[in-house]
Amino acid sequence: MLKIVKWNIYQGDTRKKEESQNPQKDEKRKADFPPRVEESRLEKKRVEKSEDQETGEAHFNTKFEFLKRLRIIEEDLDQEIDDSQNERLFDFLLKKYRALDPIREIDSIYEVFKKNPEGVKARIANGKPLVDQLYALFETAADHAGLKG
User: Fold this and answer.
1) Least confident stretch, 21-30, 47-56, 76-85, 123-132
2) Which of 14, 57, 127, 143 is paired with 136 by a 20 to 30 Å CA distance?
3) Quick one: CA dihedral 105, 114, 140, 121, positive or negative?
4) Which run of H or E residues covers position 137?
C-alpha cells in the first residue's frame, strides 16, 4: 500500500483548472468531504512550529523528550527525581541558550555519564548535585557552540 502525502502537488494543475472552471462544484466538494487529515496535521505542525519560534517556547514533544532522557540519567545514577527542578533546567536552557538543541545535548551528556558514572557519583558525593553538573555542562556546550549566555 502506498500513501501519497503531498497529493496536491501531484494533481495540482488539474485541480486548479477544475476549480477555476467551476467554482460552485469546488464549494460543494469541500462541503461533502471533511478536510484531509494529513494536510491538517501538517499545517497544524507548521503553525505550532512558527508559534513556538515566536514565543520562544519549545514544542511540547521536545520538553517531554528532554525530561524523559533526564529522568533516565537520574535513575541510572540512583538520584532522586525532581520533575520541577528538571523543568526549570529545561526552561533555563530555552531562555538562555535558544540555539542549543536540548535533546542532542542531553544525549551527549548521557553518553559522557555512561562512560564514567563513578566520577559523576563521586562529584555528587562531594557536594556537587547532578543538576549543578548539568547546568555547567550545558554552559560548556553553549561556549563550544559560540553562544552567549
Assistant:
1) 47-56
2) 57
3) positive
4) helix 130-145
The DSSP code for 34 is P
Enumerate residues 6+ apart whose C-beta is below 8 A from 86: 67, 70, 71, 131
Pair (85, 45) in one structural domain: no
Distance, in Å, from the CA atom of 130 to the CA atom of 140, rounded to the nearest integer, reads 15
Look at the chain and report how many structural domains it folds into: 2
131 assigned to some structural domain: yes
Bigger pLDDT: 66 or 3?
66
Measured between alpha carbons, how far is 60 from 67 in angstroms, rounded to an integer? 11
pTM of the entire predicted model: 0.56
Are 104 and 145 within 8 A, CB to CB? no
The DSSP 8-state label assigned to residue 128 in this structure reads -
Q: Phi and psi at residue 13, in whole multiples of 5°?
A: -65, -45
Whether the pLDDT of residue 28 is over 60: the answer is no
What does each C-alpha distance from 38 to 8, 44, 61, 91 come to in angstroms? 12, 10, 19, 31
Q: Is the pLDDT of residue 123 over 80?
A: yes
